[in-house]
Amino acid sequence: MIAEKRVTLGITGASGAPYALHLLTNLTRHFDEVHLMITDAARVVLATESALKIPESPAKIVKTLTDYCQCEEGIIKVYAKENWYAPVASGSAAPKQMIICPASMGCVSAIATGASNTLLERAADVVIKEKGQLILLPREMPFSTIHLRNLLSLSEAGVTIMPAAPGFYHNPDNIDDLVSFVTGRILNHLGINNNLSKAWGYKN
């Protein structure tokens, strides 16, 4: 029996809806299950930056995003913020890879201090304690000293800090090219080969 490829995605209320939606779409192309948590603030930002209205009900969110990503039913699994029975809350059931994109500074602070007040924070805590792969895309400008200390603490705990800061050496033509660059780098770190961004030195 071949093990299913599973990944967890958290979307918080930091600016960066295009990154989150593009990443989600691509994750559904490469994973059998995408375990998703969206904060209340993220729903507001998604509506503001993408005009995509995210409902409150997890079941309705699944339907909305399955249609948006044009993926097979059953790939996207959405959990409410206090659904402590969700598999992502337990080290024995959670996927070993998780991305938070974008990651607000409030979320970063909670994870850095082990707060685990919400399912998203608990899921991140589980990945860290189980020595899995956690990737954070902080989206803030500028970073305060407090932000930097929290990010350093997470980096020292093995978390990959990957700011949503696209490169320009691939000569992007539009915003979509910049978003694809960031998604491509995330997929690279997840071990997924992709053609979303060109490696340095490759012109074709």
Q: Could you describe the 3D structure shown?
A:
Keywords: Flavoprotein, FMN, Prenyltransferase, Transferase. Its EC number is 2.5.1.129. This is Flavin prenyltransferase UbiX. Residues 5-189 form the Flavoprotein domain. It catalyses: dimethylallyl phosphate + FMNH2 = prenylated FMNH2 + phosphate. The chain has 204 residues and is α/β, with parallel strands linked by helices. It has a single domain (6-189), classed as Flavin prenyltransferase-like (Rossmann fold). The chain is built from 7 helices and 6 strands, in the order βαβααββααβαβα. The protein has a 6-stranded parallel beta sheet, sandwiched between helices. The longest helix is centred in the C-terminal third of the chain and has 15 residues, at 175-189. The chain is globular. The mean pLDDT is 95.
Secondary-structure blueprint:
Layout: E1 6-11, H1 17-30, E2 33-38, H2 40-50, H3 58-69, E3 76-78, E4 97-103, H4 105-112, H5 119-129, E5 133-138, H6 145-156, E6 160-161, H7 175-189
Parallel strand pairs: 1-2, 1-4, 2-3, 4-5, 5-6
Helix pairs in contact: 1-7, 4-6
